[in-house]
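Quick one:
INPUT:
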C-alpha cells in the first residue's frame, strides 16, 4: 500500500507553526530544511514521534525534519498541499547571509541557458558566416544560398523564447509542454504582423509614451514591443515563471478526474493572454522611458551618454529595453543621414570578445574551451549571446569586466562624437557603417577603429590579470578516466549473508559518532563510518545499482547485489552550494562496478568556503539482527577494505 505522503505533509505543516511561519523550504538527501520565522511555534516533540519522521534537529538557522529516503516525496507533497515557497537548493536570507538580488538573477539566467549554450554557440558561428556573405553584397533578395544559411543560423535565435521555455519550465517546476504552448503564443507570426497598417488610435498621443494601438482584446489595447517577442529573453522567462504559479494554483482547485487536461487548458489561456497584454506594455513603455532618460543625458554630455550606452547595452538588449533608443537613431538617419545614438553600442561586442580571448587562453578546462572558442568566434561577428550566457554571466566577474571595458569604448566614441551613416553588419563588419556615403575614411572611421581595439585590449588585459572563475560544471576531464579497481572479482564474491564494502574515497577514517551532525552521529540514518577525504573523487564501493543521486551531486545512494543500501553524503550542509563544485558521473538506475568513479567534487573549493568535509558512509537499511564489521585502519585508499555487513 502506497504511503500517504499528503497526510504526513499536512501534519508537518500544521506542527511547524503553519504556512505563515515558513520563510523557505529546502530538502537534501535525507531531510527537509525549513527556515522558520519563529521556531518556538514548532511542536518539536510531536514531530519527533510522528510516524514517517526519523528525528528533528535545529542547526545553521534551519529547522531540520529528518525523513530518510522518502524525503523527495514528502517535499513534493508539502508543495502540493500548501503555498510554501520551496526549492531544493536555493539560498535564503538566513543561509550564509543574504544573496544579492542581482546574483540570484544572474544564477537564474545562467542555469536556464547552460543546457543549450553549445548549440547557441554553433548557430552564432553560422550567423557570423552569414555576416561575412553580407560584406560581399549578398542578401536574401539576391542569393538563395544566403537566405538558406541565414535561416539555419538565425532560426535558433529568432525562436529563443521557445528554447528558454523548455529549460525554464524545469527550473520553475512546470509542465514542459504547457510552457512551450505559452512560448509559441509569444512568437506566433500573426502577433507581430498586427503592428502593420493604420493604427486604430494612439495612446498618450503627443507624449514620450505615445503608443499606436492596432488591435484590442475585449476592448483592452494590445501593445507589442517593436519587433515582437522574437529573440527576447526576459519576457519569455517572466511568462514561464507566471505560468508555473498559475499552473500550481489550478492544480489545487481543479478536480483530479479532469485535472490532466483542464489545468493546461486554463494555464495556457490565462498565462499567454496575460503575458501578451501585460508584458507588451511594460516592454514598450519601459523602452520609451529608457529612451527619454538617455536622450536627456546625451544633451548634457555625449561622453557620459556614450559610456552608459557602451556599458549597459548588453543589459538593455537582455531586457528588451534597447528599442527606446533604436527608433530615435533610425529617425536621425532618415532626416540627417547620420546618427551618434547607434554608434556607442558598437563597443559592447568587443568587450565580450576581449574577455573571452583571455578566458580561453588562461583556462585549459575542456568544458570552458568547448563553449569559449566558438563563442569567441561568434563575438567577432557581433553575436555575443553564446559568450554572455555560456561563460560571462555564470562567472559573473568577467561579465562586469566586459561591461566596464565597453563603457570606456563608449565614452571614447561619445567624446569624439562618432556617428554611423547606415545600419549594416555587426562586430567587425559594422566598421563599414562609419565610412561616409562618398567613401571617405575620415577621423570618424579611425576613431571607431581605435575604440574597437581599445575596448578589446582593455578587456583582455584586465581579464588576464584577474583570476578566472571556474564554471560550476568544470572539472578536469581526465579525472573521469579511472580503470583501477582494487577489489577484484574474487574478492567481491558474495555469500547470502554478507556484503563486503570497499572504501569509496582516499582519506582518514573516523568513528561515525564523531561527525558533527546529529542525524548521522546518533545512528538515525544507519550504521557506518566517516572518511575525511584527501581527493575529490567518490568511487563505487562495490558492484551495485545507483538507487538515488541527489541533483546537487553532494550525496548518492547505492543498492548492492544483496540488497544492502549504502548512503554516501559528501560533507556537511553542502546542499547549500546548489551543486557548485560537484559533478555527477552517473545517474539513477545505472549499474556500476567497484572502483568506478561516481562523483567528482572540488575539495579545495569546499574547504575555502568553510564546509566540513566529513563524508558519512552508512548502511541505511540495516536490521537490528545484522552486524557490521568495520576496518581498524586509520588511513584508506579507495578500493581498500572498509566494512562487512553480515545479515
Amino acid at each position: 500500500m502506497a504511503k500517504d505522503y499528503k497526510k504526513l505533509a499536512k501534519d508537518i505543516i500544521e506542527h511547524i507553526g503553519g504556512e505563515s511561519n515558513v520563510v523557505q523550504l529546502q530538502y537534501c538527501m535525507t531531510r527537509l530544511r525549513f527556515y522558520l520565522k519563529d521556531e518556538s511555534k514548532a511542536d518539536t516533540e510531536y514531530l519527533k514521534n510522528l510516524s514517517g519522521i526519523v528525528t528533528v534537529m535545529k542547526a545553521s538557522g534551519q529547522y531540520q525534519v529528518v525523513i530518510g529516503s522518502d524525503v523527495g516525496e514528502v517535499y513534493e507533497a508539502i508543495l502540493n498541499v500548501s503555498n510554501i515557497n520551496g526549492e531544493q537548493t536555493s539560498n535564503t536570507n538566513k543561509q550564509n547571509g543574504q544573496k544579492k538580488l542581482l546574483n540570484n538573477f544572474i544564477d537564474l539566467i545562467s542555469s536556464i541557458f547552460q543546457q543549450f549554450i553549445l548549440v547557441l554557440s554553433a548557430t552564432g558561428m553560422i550567423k557570423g558566416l552569414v555576416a561575412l556573405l553580407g560584406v560581399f553584397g549578398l542578401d536574401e533578395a539576391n542569393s538563395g544560398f544566403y537566405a538558406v544559411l541565414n535561416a539555419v543560423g538565425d532560426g535558433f535565435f529568432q525562436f529563443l523564447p521557445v528554447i528558454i521555455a523548455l529549460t525554464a519550465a524545469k527550473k520553475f517546476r512546470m509542465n514542459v509542454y504547457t510552457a512551450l504552448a505559452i512560448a509559441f503564443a509569444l512568437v506566433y507570426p500573426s502577433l507581430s504582423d498586427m503592428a502593420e497598417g493604420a493604427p486604430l488610435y494612439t495612446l498618450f498621443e503627443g507624449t514620450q509614451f505615445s503608443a499606436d494601438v492596432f488591435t484590442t482584446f475585449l476592448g483592452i489595447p494590445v501593445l507589442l514591443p517593436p519587433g515582437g517577442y522574437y529573440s527576447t529573453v526576459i519576457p519569455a522567462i517572466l511568462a514561464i515563471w507566471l505560468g508555473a504559479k498559475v499552473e500550481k494554483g489550478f492544480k489545487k482547485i481543479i478536480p483530479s478526474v479532469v485535472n490532466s487536461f483542464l489545468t493546461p487548458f486554463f494555464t495556457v489561456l490565462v498565462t499567454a493572454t496575460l503575458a501578451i497584454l501585460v508584458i507588451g506594455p511594460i516592454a514598450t513603455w519601459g523602452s520609451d522611458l529608457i529612451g527619454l532618460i538617455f536622450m536627456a543625458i546625451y544633451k548634457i554630455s555625449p561622453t557620459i551618454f556614450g559610456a552608459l550606452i557602451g556599458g549597459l547595452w548588453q543589459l538593455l538588449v537582455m531586457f528588451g529595453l534597447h528599442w527606446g533608443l533604436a527608433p530615435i537613431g533610425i529617425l536621425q538617419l532618415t532626416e540627417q543621414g547620420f546618427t551618434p545614438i547607434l554608434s556607442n553600442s558598437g563597443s559592447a561586442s568587443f568587450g565580450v570578445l576581449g574577455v573571452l580571448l583571455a578566458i580561453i587562453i588562461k583556462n585549459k578546462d575542456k568544458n570552458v574551451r568547448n563553449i569559449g572558442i566558438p563563442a569567441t568566434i561568434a563575438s567577432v561577428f557581433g553575436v555575443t549571446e553564446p559568450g554572455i550566457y555560456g561563460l560571462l554571466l555564470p562567472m559573473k566577474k568577467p561579465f562586469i569586466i566586459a561591461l566596464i571595458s565597453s563603457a570606456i569604448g563608449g565614452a571614447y566614441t561619445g567624446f569624439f562624437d562618432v556617428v554611423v551613416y547606415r545600419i549594416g553588419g555587426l562586430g567587425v563588419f559594422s566598421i563599414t557603417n562609419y565610412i561616409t556615403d562618398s567613401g571617405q575614411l575620415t577621423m570618424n572611421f579611425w576613431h571607431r577603429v581605435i575604440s574597437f581595439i581599445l575596448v578589446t585590449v582593455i578587456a583582455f588585459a584586465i581579464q588576464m590579470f584577474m583570476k578566472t572563475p571556474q564554471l560550476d560544471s568544470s572539472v578536469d576531464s581526465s579525472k573521469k578516466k579511472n580503470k583501477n579497481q582494487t577489489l577484484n572479482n574474487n574478492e567481491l564474491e558474495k555469500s547470502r549473508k554478507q556484503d563486503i564494502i570497499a572504501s569509496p574515497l582516499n582519506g582518514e577514517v573516523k568513528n561515525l559518532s564523531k561527525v558533527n551532525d546529529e542525524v548521522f552521529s546518533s545512528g538515525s540514518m544507519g550504521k557506518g563510518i566517516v572518511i575525511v577525504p584527501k581527493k575529490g573523487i567518490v568511487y563505487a564501493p562495490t558492484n551495485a545499482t545507483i538507487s538515488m543521486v541527489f541533483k546537487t551531486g553532494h550525496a548518492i545512494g547505492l543498492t548492492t547485489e544483496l540488497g544492502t543500501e549504502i548512503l554516501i553524503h559528501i560533507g556537511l550542509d553542502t546542499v547549500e552550494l546548489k551543486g557548485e563544485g560537484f559533478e555527477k558521473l552517473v545517474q539513477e538506475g545505472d549499474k556500476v562496478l567497484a572502483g568506478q568513479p561516481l562523483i567528482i567534487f572540488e575539495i579545495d573549493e569546499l574547504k575555502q568556503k568553510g564546509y566540513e568535509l566529513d563524508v558519512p558512509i552508512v548502511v541505511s537499511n540495516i536490521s537490528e539482527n545484522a552486524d557490521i564489521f568495520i576496518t581498524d585502519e586509520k588511513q584508506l585508499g579507495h578500493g581498500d577494505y572498509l566494512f562487512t555487513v553480515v545479515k
